[in-house]
Amino acid sequence: MPARRRTVLAGFAVAPAVSAFAGPAHAAPAHAAPAHAAPAHAAPARRSPSASGFRAGVGVSDVTGPVAEVGMMGYSSFDQVAHGLHQRTRARAYVFDTGGGTARVAYVCTDTCMIFQSVHDAVLARLAQRFGDLYTERNVLLTAVHSHAACGGASHDYAYNLAVLGFRQQVFDAEVDGIVEAITAAHDDLADATLSYGRSELLDASVNRSRDAFDRNPIADRDYYPHGIDHWMRVLRITRAGLDVGAVNWFATHCASLTNENLLVSGDNKGAAAYFWESDAGVRHLDGVVPFVAAFPQTNSGDMSPNLAGEPGRGPTDDEFENTRIIGERQVAAARAAFESATTLPVGPIDSRILYLDMADQTVSGRYTDDGREHRTSPACIGAAMSAGSTEDGPALGLFPEGTPNPLADALGGMDVDVPQWLVDAQYPKLVLAPVGLLPPDGWVPHVVKIQLLRIGDLYIAGGPAEFTIVAGLRIRRTVADELEVPLENVIFQGYANSYCSYCTTPEEYDAQHYEGGSTLFGRHTLPAYQQGFARLAGALRDGVDVPRGPAPRDLSHLQPFFGPTVDHDEPLPGTSFGDVVLRPAESVRAGDVVEVEFVTGHPQNDIRRGSTFFEVQRRDGTGWVRHADDSDWATRFHWRRESTHSAIARITWDVPAGTPPGRYRIVHFGEAKSRGDGTISSFTGTGDEFDVA
Length: 694
Known about the structure:
By secondary structure, the protein is an alpha+beta fold. The chain is about 20% helix and about 25% strand. α2 packs across α3.
């Protein structure tokens, strides 16, 4: 039965927060609290059970790839090559159904930079092997927090692998394996649940990095965002048998608190937010104990920066890791405020639709264009503004450094392709730098991409495969809400979904040709083409009919070269063995001190230790030792460096947090070394000296 405006959110009728969902878009909701009102690390509250007819399951898994000598994804800088680990990256999965039937949806958020079509396809193939047609491209939505400190090389699209010198199998396998494991865990965890939805305001975790372009939009768009940012934290709360087991916390801010100078793999501010909330709920992923799963996905964050001072690594402080912590904790505080005041969703259907669009060849009706005339999209082009980059978040794609050869680009035939006049005209006013959609064998970016619409009761999630600006996301939400005849606040926009094809601005923003406009690949009418597609999806969902799938995305898995360094073998430093300690900790420390230990080690690529750890901070407990912290924790860091061609050192640091129990501690390192000749990989353990925490 189609959802109608008068029936949607009927369950909110007795709640004072009703006006927050259906009232003026820019008004503060009646139940909202300021972001600082809830402690950033408060544990989830317990609520009485309420039979709702929903079932929900949660799951989490490790997706961390190799953390040494792998290019990092996000800034596309040739110089940003990982040399260690700050925090492991996770996939957090949620499965929803109404019990008894096969109508369900799976939602996954990873602490990576993007979900590429390559990963999306491999995950679906693996799910089909295990579950048949239960989880398909129609009802599985994959997204990423867009961390600029994640491993690169998982894409089959050459433009996104140029800076990391090709496809990295270890990165790809870690992401696919972890996502499948997380969905499987959520599937196995399904149980009766109550779902609730809430909002709060968060005004000090983002700035508009393209304000001049934003101001070109009509007054109705600007009024919806009076601060020039998407200031809403939107939270889906999951409760089972009186116990809160999960939260999905949508907020728009780039995961770019860590700069392109950082060489430690991390989930950035959103990975930190998930860690802070989950750790206070008692989560220890390494133990397999997962009482609470908190994901912090993006929405329309294309023009939202966390660098509040308008420069990379600046704002609120001048320390990029401190900024990561603060922006993460502010998101947790706002999410907690929305979580605590969330109102129960009435029981409703679970449903989904998908549509593949060839974005290089869309005829767009005048219904969706700003001049009311029909227009067309065109093959993908990178603009000069994309190369110029963003002053707030850092330099742009380092794909075209003058005079610098790229072996991957050379192997594919190079990028020296004439831009035909018809394409120049189609992309106007963009100054075309590279027609990446015309490069052989079938373009270096995807052009057939998936858009998706999920329904969870009276909540709708519209997933698009790019970095949408806040007004671009708003227009898609309006399109979907109008077709469904539901309030706008029932529709959440989800960017970075299922594949990746750079940015999407409004036509007005495109004309400004800032970084975001130069990165809007398919021309000025990219957003109207998406709106037209989402209107088809929403109409089909409303009417209970299917929509034709559309063209199949291309498969380039057979041609994925790699030109980066590989591990030949490992050697200990002269006069040492693997695991030997070469830097010893102080004998006594206290909260606020930094413990440092260095070990002779092998290459982390020998075993990425997915689902495990490279070290433990251990505390003496009676006659034995128990793990106190590991490489997932905020207070620890794992630095890896070469000392010679085949020898390396692991430097492990622990910033002793306030409240650390006094006692006897030590740091233990776990590693693998590759032998010369036959390439045998052997494990070793190094144990640091004991020290006291006073």
